[in-house]
Each structure stands twice: as structure tokens, then as C-alpha cells.
Amino acid sequence: MQALNPLSIAAPFGRYSHGVATRGAGRLVLTSGQLGLRADGSLPEGALEQARQCFANCAAILAEAGLSARDVLRVNAFVTDRAYFADYMAARDAFLAGVEVLPASTLVIVSGFTRPEFLVEVELTAMERA
């Protein structure tokens, strides 16, 4: 993978790349949006713990496909309040710790999810390298 961060535009706002390029054929893996639900159906309190669980769920899906955070091309995330920005970023940065080529990343503030107690949702696009 190659990070695309042209010097002709402002630097990324955080630990992500403006774009990511890949070469060659590889298996594409996309996750559905993951909420902060644990395997037993319980929901952690607060945006930080929900975001951590979202990334843990995504990591489990990637592992099922034989992939890891280093294979992620794009992170799309949604939070229900700007106040959750720092908590989400802390969870995302922990998930990406040690990743050499950072993925593209988008965070959107939304009015809500299917249940009001859900605060964060994360979906990933990853590619298995040939």
C-alpha cells in the first residue's frame, strides 16, 4: 500500500492518510457498520468504550478473513455528538498503533442510530495483499 498525502494540500488532520493506493489483485474485505455491542449483546457505557468495542468487532471480522489493522484501506465512522470526537480518535489511534501506512479515514456526526444508546459506529475496507 502507498499513502497519498500530496504536499499541495493541507496535511491530514490526524493519524490517517488523505488517500491510499494499492497495486495488484487482492481480496477485498468490507465490514458492515459495527456498533459497540459485545458478543453477549451488552453495550459499554460511553463513547470511548463503545468505540473501542467497535474496533474490536472490526478486528474480529478482519481476523476471520486472515487480515489485521495493517490491511485497512479506509475507516468510515459515525458518532452522534461532536463531544465524542476525542474519544473516537483515541480508540481509532489505538487500533492503528504500529500501522505503517495509515488508511484513509472519515468521521461523520449523525443524528442517531437505531437505538439512542448507540453512540458510535465504525466500518472498514481492507485488502489482502497478494
TrEMBL record:
UniProt cross-references to InterPro entries, sorted A to Z: RutC-like_sf, YjgF/YER057c/UK114
GO molecular function: deaminase activity
Pfam families from the UniProt entry: Ribonuc_L-PSP
Domain of life: Bacteria
GO cellular component, one term: cytosol
Sequence similarity: Belongs to the RutC family.
Protein name: Enamine deaminase RidA, house cleaning of reactive enamine intermediates, YjgF/YER057c/UK114 family
